[in-house]
Amino acid sequence: GRNAQAAPTPSGKTAVGLAAPKMGKVRWAFIGVGARGSSHLATVLTLDNAEVVAVCDNHPPTLKRAADRVKARTGKDVPAFGADGDGDAWKKMLERQDIDAVLISTP
After folding, report:
1. What is the DSSP track for the chain?
2. 28, 37 in Cβ contact below 8 A?
3. Which of 5, 27, 55, 77 has its CB 3.0 to 4.6 Å from that of 66, i.e. a possible disulfide?
4. CA distance 66 to 104
5. What predicted TM-score, i.e. pTM, was given to this entire model?
């Protein structure tokens, strides 16, 4: 179309040899912890330097399972947003100051 842009020209440079400083703990929040989201949650719970700090889902039994899974793995209660049917629960969760990354797994 008229607004199509040409693809960027490769520079010939690669990321090989680049190093970034080691990250400290990454604090994760999850939006959607059903079929796919629960799998992502399970994976993050196995990572070193990862902490799940909040979960959100609009299906109360799914949300409870996710919160229970976090507690079983970490021994900590995690704030769970959405059990009350609030469609804006995810927005409230994102107001938290202890979130570094959000993983979204919604249909």
Report:
1. -TT--PPPPP-S--STT---PPP--EEEEEE--SHHHHHHHHHHTTSTTEEEEEEE-SSHHHHHHHHHHHHHHHS----EE-TT--TTHHHHHHT-SS-SEEEE---
2. no
3. 55
4. 14
5. 0.78
